[in-house]
Amino acid sequence: MATKAQTNTVVTPVGLRRQSGNSAYLGALLVAAAGFVFMAALCGAYISVRNFVGIGDGGFIPKEMKFDNYAGFMTMVSGLGASASAEWALISAKVKQRRWALGGYGFAILLGLGAANSAWFIGSRSALVAADTAYAISFYAVIATTIGFVLLGVLASLLGLVRTMGGHIFGDNVLLGRATNVFVHLGTAASLVMFFLLFTYK
Amino acid sequence: MTLTTSAPISPAVDAAIFDGMVTDDWVSTSDHRRIGQLHLGLVLGAVIAAASLGIAVHGSEGGWFGLASSGRGSVGSLLALHQNLWAVAIGMPLWVAVGTLVVPGQIGATRLAFPRMASVSLWGWVVGVATLVTATLVEDGPVTFNVLMSQAPLGTSGAANQATDLAIASLMLIAGATLVGAVNLVATIVTERRPALKLGEVNPFSWSIFVAMAVSILSTPVFIAGLFLTYLDQHFGSQFFASGAGADRAWAHMVWLFGRPETLLIALPAVGAVAGIVVARTGRPLVGGSVGNALISAAGCISITVWAGRELIAGSLIQPYSRFWVALVIVPLFLLLLLILGSVRGGLKPDVSLLFALGVLLSIVLGALITVVLITRDLTPDTAGAAQFGLPNLLIFGVALLGALGMVVETATDGYGRTLSKIGATLGGLSVLGGVLLSGAGLALGSFVDDAKNAHAGAALGKGLIAAGAALVMLTIVGSAFGRSRSVSATGSHSQEGNH
After folding, report:
1. Dihedral of the CA atoms B238, B244, B245, B247 (nearest 10)?
2. B-chain residues near A41 (CB < 8 A)
3. Which residues in chain A show pLDDT less than 50?
4. A 84-103 → B contacts, CB under 8 A
5. Vertex A154: Cα angle to A149 and A156 (nearest 5)
């Protein structure tokens, strides 16, 4: 049954569109916020299990566990380096130094892959069996999450490289670059969290 | 506050929308209207399926027929699927669908911030729901299927089967799809709105969607992490949710339905929808200017604070409003309802959408009264059983369904290109309202008279009414499209009758 047309609705007239790069940056920030909350939840669970099992001799951390602080530190430093490189790339793109920008994203990719490889090394060298202890599964959960977020950052850096090649991130048009870098920083944050939980807080 | 009025859709745009409805593909579209229409239609299909499962469960409890007590197709497995559908596959996804359909029009945007992301959200939801249903059909059903409703952690039994894996994967997929939709809607409201429209002055409905989705972005990853840890517990015997006070608390805040803030916020956009409907029907903004939007924000902030705080509501008999700090979320919403009622003075232009708005108000008032009365009674776990089912039906899911349908009916001219049939929408609204009252208030009141059997029978009838009402609204929408199709075929051109 057709009805009379409405005279008042809650619909506004269509106006000018805003810059789409804003959307990409905001979207990246929102996804990053979700990622941070995910990591926070994982941290909370790790700490909860640690307190439940107890940290006495042979309690939470098995005796056979050997900590390779060097590898943990390198994971964190590689992540920080990737973040710095990505920011360097963005600043270079702003001042229209295309080659420096490409180099920056290239370094970010290599350092990100280095961080992921280092985290994988920590996991593979631990000689723990995931199903054996609560610590082992917590340990692998943190490692896997770190590798996942770092690889997401590497993927974003790759996208940044391609976008810079295509001239999408250059001069005043750097919002896509900012969005890209948010994911790189998320990976770095994951490596920091991993270092704190597994090597500092234990 | 900026009052917004309708801008007629140009014949070219109108024709493009209509052509898309009948000829173009719906799978790869990036038009927010089409994605929203499809999403809403599928979520309403899930509502009908979930309500039908409710008929089976409550009918069995009410003595209408007998279902097996264990195994595939048992009361427990159907109840779990019914609850999981409502809580995860319908609750927030319903608002993602309505938001995708309605919000861009309300803020003067021509598109979503990430149109393809809306498609990802839609199809991720579809695959997730399909997996959720499949999980009940595999083996003997999932061991940890009813994770959402279990107040205590499931422990580290390590007894997971393939069905459990499917169930956990499906819940993660649906939650992920909802998260993607939430990011899209928040980004759309912030970046795509008409430049002259300030963020604090957007329509109350859009603002309530903004707040609910923002909270969802912060809380859904925790739920996904909880499911991930549950998977690890069940498969590898880790002790994330091993028995103990810390694990109880972690479980209650990460996985359990009533311990998470988005549960409290499923009803928030419904109140925003009522405000939006009143704004449209009075032709004036809400009294108090932007205070309404501030109250909606306050509800969101309080829910996050309650969640992040040490409030432990596990073990409560009346869910979810059983503790002072949780109940505090209601205060700003109650004040918003007063603002809405104050705005009604001066008359309303009658429309079917007001029926849905009235239904939301009635459900909230009844739910609040029942909660207050139940708190004063000495309930035991046995006598509280019906109330535990009834109140969420009334205050969370019933209110959300009524609010969402009301908003769809109100904005049908923008979302579907024409107003809906008043008869169909009225009958659908009355049916849903009756169903919500029967399955919510009726079931909760069963604990007053200790007559659980008849309360369940009434709830089964209520679920039937909800399914019928949702189907009727869907048919009304489809009928409008077909009516339009006939008028086009008859004239050979796109008829403008019944349009703007």
Report:
1. 20
2. 221-222, 225-226, 254
3. 1-9, 15-16, 19
4. none
5. 95
Interface contact flag, A23 B114, Cβ < 8 Å: yes
Rg (CA), chain B: 22
- Whether B263 and B395 have beta carbons less than 8 Å apart is answered as no
pLDDT digits (tens, 9 = 90+) for B87-127: 889 989 999 999 999 999 899 888 888 988 899 999 999 99
Task: Determine the Cα–Cα distance for residues A80 and B132; give it in Å rounded to an integer.
Answer: 40
Distance CA B21, CA B27 (A): 12
Establish if B500 touches chain A: CB-CB under 8 angstroms: yes
Distance of alpha carbon B364 from alpha carbon B268, whole angstroms: 11
Which ipTM did the prediction report?
0.74
Report the range out of A107-111, B224-228, B373-377 with the highest average pLDDT. A107-111
Q: Which positions in chain A touch B244 (Cβ < 8 Å)? A: 52
Residue to mutate among B172, B193, B229, with most A CBs inside 10 A, is B229
Chain B residue closest in CA terms to A137: B238
DSSP-based three-state secondary structure for B81:
helix
Do residue A8 and residue B246 have CB atoms under 8 angstroms apart? no
